Automatic annotation (TrEMBL):
A Pfam match: PilZ
Protein name: PilZ domain-containing protein
GO molecular function, one term: cyclic-di-GMP binding
Domain PilZ residue range list: 16-93
InterPro entries noted in UniProt: PilZ_domain (IPR009875)
Length: 118
């Protein structure tokens, strides 16, 4: 919360300024580029995109499909870039933000639900 306030008033270091808040999420995804499926793990997610591990074998700008098998989440995105640790993906549509918001809440609720309550 405090980092959001600092960003809003322009007091955070430039490299920390982000358009959207990131949420730590660790869950498997399947990313398909040019008909080739890649198994990945989400490192973090925001309304604008996500970061995956490992890097995706595709060129920046490549269109891709993101599938979260456990929830059925299915989105279109674009590969922004890769580095030695992972890939950055942006979402293609404004609706993706709403879908991701619901997904992050759903994942958080599952993680915070006591085992005996399931």
């Amino acid at each position: 919360m405090f980092s959001s306030i600092l960003r809003a008033v322009g007091l955070s270091p430039k490299e920390d300024r982000r358009e959207f808040e990131r949420y730590a999420v660790t869950t498997p995804l399947e990313v398909t580029v040019d008909g080739v499926a890649h198994k990945c793990i989400v490192e973090n997610v925001s309304v604008g995109g996500l970061r995956l591990e490992p890097p995706v074998d595709a060129a920046p700008g490549s269109e891709l499909t993101i599938l979260h098998p456990a929830s059925g989440l299915h989105l279109k995105g674009k590969l922004i870039g890769n580095d030695e640790n992972g890939a950055r993906v942006s979402f293609d549509s404004a609706e993706a933000g709403a879908v991701i918001s619901v997904w992050v809440r759903m994942m958080h609720e599952q993680e915070s639900t006591p085992a005996h309550a399931v």
